[in-house]
Amino acid sequence: xxxxxxxxxxxxGEYGLFEEVEAWEKDLLTSVEQGVKSLLEIFSxxxxxxxxxxxGKTIQDIVKxxxxxxxxxLGGEDKEQSESACTFAFCLGIDxxxxxGPESLQYIDVLLPALVMSLGSQSPDLRQAAAYGVGVCAEKxxxxxxxxxxxxxxxxxxxxxxxxxxxxxLATHALGLLFNMIAAEDSQTExxxxxxxxxxxxxxxxxxxxxxxxxxxxxxxxxxxxxxLRFDIIEAHDAHRRLxxxxxxxxxxxxxxxxxxxxxxxxxxxxxxxxPQPAEDEESxxxxxxxxxxxxxxxxxxxxxxxxLHHLQATLPExxxxxxxxxxxxxxxxxLQVSTSSLIE
Length: 345
Known about the structure:
This protein is mainly alpha-helical. Among the domains are: 80-145 and 154-214, Serine Threonine Protein Phosphatase 5, Tetratricopeptide repeat, CATH 1.25.40; 233-276 and 292-344, no CATH class. 69% of the residues lie in helices and 0% in strands. It has helices at 2-7, 12-43, 48-72, 83-99, 106-118, 124-140, 151-168, 171-183, 193-209, 216-224, 233-247, 252-256, 263-274, 288-293, 299-315, 318-325, 330-337. One of its GO terms (biological process) is protein import into nucleus. It is found in: Cytoplasm. Keywords: Cytoplasm, Protein transport, Repeat, Transport. This is HEAT repeat-containing protein 1.
């Protein structure tokens, strides 16, 4: 709408009105999405039928319009859905996926093509929503746990298998676009940092939940060099927690590499995650809770990192640990030597 106004030569006053309408539309749609999200978090899958009936067609129409427009390279501004509408459709569809159980998995096939296309959008906000959505689709389309049993589990497994087929065809393309976001020159600016963080998290989720569709042992060493997440603190807490869970679980070999080849990069990434973040405006934190809200990891993840480091020292040959340690800079070494208990006393 803003581009259309500029092209049609509206004067300054009319252009200002368009700006106000854009801002109003964005605020309204955000309020609707947040309200529905709150209800879904409270009532979970029991609301799926009502939400699907109320918003399902709207979401489908918006994402269908977006994918058709991109696919056909249509240039008409009047045919362009607003950024706010696309972001609304993505966020609401993702909320449904995250909270409504197996019934909601049909939204993976609805959303995914448009999400992947939007990873290349000029809008950082839309890229951020798209990257987050791709990560959710990776997680929700993960192959079911073979240890599950019972009729309900079998039905859930069947739903996941059906939903996962769409992700399989787009995973490679999505990974390429996500790494384009991560490596872009402006990736660490205030405008783009949130999108970059969600792209990093999405790549990690694809490696974690859909290793059948990628080569985690090749992707993760590169991903480590771009860590940590710094702008979206909520996503940083989640992504860093998941990475540490991989390091301390059955997937550790995928992150650490053959013969511990990735250990220096792992230690560097962990060190950067736990470097204490200062309070804003050089003020001090008023409480432990406020301190942890501003850190790149939560307290539990930091304690898990400490345990992981102690485990490495106890189980690895001293020469391997020493070689990795020597590749860290002074600040990284200092960060890894500070105990969690000493941070706020």
